[in-house]
Design brief:
The structure is a single chain. This protein has 116 residues and is mainly alpha-helical. The protein has helices spanning 4-19, 68-78, 81-89. The chain is flat. 0% of the residues are buried.
Length: 116
């Protein structure tokens, strides 16, 4: 927004929207305005705990854990970590590129002109 009037209007709208937000239903009641915050005997609202995960739907049960010895034996039968490395090194086929790009006809110019 390059125009100062538009920037000021946008800021005013955002500020009004922030002030107009209703308080959450689980918000503790506000402490009295006359309470001294340095007074250890001042009344304090009880803390309210609500898990951030409480509103989420429960998912499927996680898969049962495989005993570590069985997992190690399976990795050994597959070929160990090298089998996983070979699998990861194979590029996935791409629908947009049906064939590999051809190498350049001339080698790229080294930025140092051949100096080491």
């Amino acid at each position: 927004m390059s125009h100062p009037l538009l920037a000021g209007l946008a800021l005013a709208v955002l500020a009004a929207a922030a002030v107009a937000q209703p308080a959450p239903a689980s918000a503790p009641p506000a402490a009295s305005a006359s309470a001294d915050p340095t007074d250890p005997r001042a009344p304090v609202p009880a803390p309210v705990y609500r898990s951030v995960l409480a509103g989420l739907p429960s998912g499927a049960e996680p898969p049962a854990a495989v005993p570590w010895r069985a997992a190690n034996d399976q990795v050994g039968r597959i070929g160990g970590w090298k089998a996983y490395a070979r699998e990861a090194a194979v590029p996935a086929p791409s629908a947009s590129a049906p064939h590999a790009p051809q190498p350049a006809a001339t080698p790229p110019v080294h930025p140092h002109g051949g100096h080491r």
